[in-house]
Amino acid sequence: MFIVLLIIFLLLLGVLLGYQYILTNYTVTTSYVEGNVHYTDEEILDMVMTGRYGNNSLFLSMKYKNKSISDVPFVEKMDVSVMDPHTIKIEVYEKALAGYVEYLENYMYFDKDGIVVESSNEQTKGIPLVTGLQFDHVVLYEPLPVDNPEIFKSVLSITQLVNKYNLSIDRIYFGSDNTLTLYFDEVRVALGNATDLDEKLMKLQYMLPELQGKSGVLRMENYTEETKNISFEPDQESAG
Predict the structure, then answer these.
(1) Cβ atoms < 10 Å from Cβ of 142
(2) Residue 42 and residue 90: Cα distance in Å, rounded?
(3) What was the pLDDT predicted at 128?
(4) How far apart are CA 64 and CA 74, in angstroms?
(5) Which residue intervals of the chain are DSSP H helices?
(6) CATH class of the structural domain 99-238
(7) Which pLDDT band, with edges at 50, 70 and 90, does 90 fall under?
């Protein structure tokens, strides 16, 4: 009987020591988060390192082995890698958002093909509001029902270009004839159709600082690298 109790005691002691060893030697102290824009590093870590043993690298290794996190809004997936007993790396692959529309007091985000991929009550920095589109319903994971789906290619191009040239855009407006207008505070930039967008926005990055504090329409419909045709029409109340 004594021997049995001794064996049980030693087994329990071994389990306890092993448990203590794991807690002490596999604690995450360093973390790297890559690819995140919509969420901060801290928010991503809170999503990954959940539960009682969320800061234990051995637990995380088993939890996320051959498994991605794919149920986070605005995120396609997240991969968690344990670099060493004290270091983890989280790679975030966000959904490619082109723009969003307002519908029933929600923001409906769509991709380059016009597929509605997210619904949220929060605006996402760097993704423009798109107005002027005509639709009577919105269904998640289905295309926005607009007359001209080519519009979405223009939206994606503008989104990429405003990021390329570090422009902060308030919204994109599509006229009934599919002409484009960009809104920057009180300045409206009339781009016309979707031709020569790269040239127009490259020029625009140098012109906007000169228009700060002004209100009116910057006409770039006929601007090309050859013609360089641009004019500014101040609003009546700000003219002079």
Answers:
(1) 12
(2) 12
(3) 87
(4) 20
(5) 2-25, 41-48, 57-63, 151-164, 197-207
(6) alpha beta
(7) very high
